[in-house]
Amino acid sequence: MKNEDVISTLNDLIETCKDGELGFKTCAEDISDGQFKQPFLTLAAGCAAAAQELKGLVIAHGGTPETKGSLSGTLHRRWVDIKSAIMGKDDEAILNECERGEDVAVRSYREALEKPLPLDVKAVVERQFQGVLQNHDVVKKLRDRSRVASL
């Protein structure tokens, strides 16, 4: 794999992490149930830390790290905001959208892991992928807990 391709893959994952960070912050702001705010802020901090780690790898491989999220991530957050406004900040809808965002993160990491990455990069991406899967599980559990509470 060419070094430019490694850097491009890492920068794509940085965008994914930034999207997650900003998405989780948006969910924390929009959700009405206070017990969900801190878990979202914790998840956002984890995404920020993952982006920082990936930025270090980009620099180590001679590249310039991405500094912001993707256009699709921005559009997704705006969709969450619009949907929240229309639906009166319905917690289940917010949690569903948050899970949808995590589905994208899982797919992005899976696609990166299918590439012939250098071993140092692959090790970091594999470890972070496990974190992405854990984030997805946390969001699903929060959504399920919200559904039970609303019954």
Automatic annotation (TrEMBL):
<dbReference type="InterPro" id="IPR019052">
    <property type="entry name" value="DUF2383"/>
</dbReference>
<dbReference type="InterPro" id="IPR011971">
    <property type="entry name" value="CHP02284"/>
</dbReference>
<dbReference type="Pfam" id="PF09537">
    <property type="entry name" value="DUF2383"/>
</dbReference>
<dbReference type="InterPro" id="IPR012347">
    <property type="entry name" value="Ferritin-like"/>
</dbReference>
<protein>
    <recommendedName>
        <fullName>DUF2383 domain-containing protein</fullName>
    </recommendedName>
</protein>
<feature type="domain" description="DUF2383">
    <location>
        <begin position="5"/>
        <end position="115"/>
    </location>
</feature>
<dbReference type="InterPro" id="IPR016920">
    <property type="entry name" value="UCP029477"/>
</dbReference>
